Amino acid sequence: MQSWREAPPTWTVLALSTAIAGVLGGGIGGAISHGNDGGDSSPHTVTIGAPATKPVSSSGATIGSVADVAAKILPSVVSIEVRTDQGGDTGSGIVISKSGYILTNNHVVQPATTGGKLSVVFPDKKSVSAEIIGRDKVSDLAVIRVHGVRGLQAAQLGSSGSLAVGDQVVAVGSPLGLAGTVTSGIVSALDRPVEAGDLAGNTDDIIDAIQTDAAINPGNSGGPLVDSAGRVIGINSAIATLSGGQVFDSGQGGSIGLGFAIPIDQAKRIASQLIEQGYSTHAIIGVTLQARFTGNGARIGNPRGGAAVQPGGPADHAGLEDGDVIVEVDGQRVTTADELIVAIRKRVPGARLTIVYVRDGARHTTVVTLGSARSD
After folding, report:
1. What is the DSSP string of 262-312?
2. Positive or negative CA dihedral for 365, 366, 367, 370?
3. Of 5, 29, 53, which residue constitutes the final position of a domain?
4. Which of 55, 236, 303, 365 has the most CB atoms at less than 10 Å from its CB?
């Protein structure tokens, strides 16, 4: 979010015009002028091969280019403004339904829950008031809705499950209030545990993030991260900064090439629940973890002295106890508490996980059926 309180390689084309170049090039288009057998000195043209062309989209841009992606997604990206007695903030959002539903971050709309005025500004500069349909603090997602707006173009939602490090991506939003800003980059990492925060750097929980080097700045929050086909694969939510002692936040630092987005597979499920029932659910294991454990793994333990394993909860039923150190989930190594949280967040309530844990120096294996908790 941006606070109002503070205010491609160039390809060199070589023209090959000799006969031998045309033959060796095969697909290179060339023109050769020569006399004909009848002695007529007037030249004629023989075309060798087909002219090199690139497929273009309806917008005239090369298919898969940043310009093509921008043309597809920009009509579905909005700016979100919240005005309070103390000032105003702006973020971004994605139209996900022609009936007016818009997906964004919870921290973008949170100020509107305490008396702020919430509005949406469309690409044509039209501003419309909006209502909050539902919020999920755990995943930092929210759905809002506008009414009486015709011609809304819903974004195409893709899948984050098939993403690979190095995939090309495009980020769109309103950084520093500059609506419709497009930046490009790649997927830098996957399954990155990141604290989701608000303008003050307050953290609500940990998100299982897509890391990207596409420039993301304050105000991009809630906007889309898009693949080369123009499909939304993530919701931009946080950036890394070098100021204020806060490593991961959505504060006022600028882009240093470390941006983070909520995977769309998770966001789709949460958004559907918020629209259908006003709240969302999350998978839980039913334990308290020691955040400052310095060993490898996630140690079950309550620093406040209470029960670390929820009685009758998923972990309890699976035989886990206070002091156990979880080191593997479904074959994936776990080295920190955050990594365990991310591994669980990727699943849905009712999913079964094979967990390896260490107790008294010995490794054990158990199966946990994840429970469910409401976002509110």
Report:
1. EEHHHHHHHHHHHHHHS--EEEE--B-B-TT--SSSEEB--TTSS-SB-TT
2. negative
3. 53
4. 236
**Which residue of the set 68, 107, 136, 198 is catalytic?**
107
Question: Is residue 1 included in any domain, yes or no?
Answer: no
Q: Is the pTM of this model over 0.90?
A: no
Angle at 175 between CA 139 and CA 126, to 5 degrees: 95
C-alpha count within 13 angstroms, C-beta hemisphere, residue 341: 20
Residue 187 region, left (φ>0) first, then alpha (ψ -120 to 50), else beta?
Answer: beta
**Does the annotation mark 140 as catalytic?**
yes
How far CA 254 is from CA of 176, 203, 214, 216, 219, in Å, comes to 10, 19, 12, 8, 11
Q: What is the largest CA-CA distance in the chain?
A: 104
Calpha distance 351→367 (Å, rounded)? 10
Q: How far apart are CA 108 and CA 226, in angstroms?
A: 20
Active-site hit among 89, 136, 140, 338: 140
Query: 238: which 2 tokens?
Result: 């946080």
Percent of the chain surpassing pLDDT 90? 61
Whether 282 is catalytic: no
Instruction: Say if residue 47 is in the same domain as residue 62.
Output: no
pLDDT digits (tens, 9 = 90+) for 310-323: 999 999 999 999 99
End-to-end CA distance of the chain: 23
The catalytic position among 221, 237, 280, 375 is: 221
Query: In this structure, is residue 62 part of a structural domain?
Result: yes
Residue 241 contacts residue 223 (beta carbons within 8 Å) = no
Phi, psi values for residue 150, rounded to 5°: -95, 160
Distances in whole angstroms, Cα of residue 133 to Cα of each of 106, 162, 345, 354: 11, 30, 22, 36
Give yes or no for a contact between 8 and 66, defined as CB atoms under 8 angstroms apart: yes
Quote the domain boundaries for residue 288.
Answer: 282-374
Active site residue 40: no
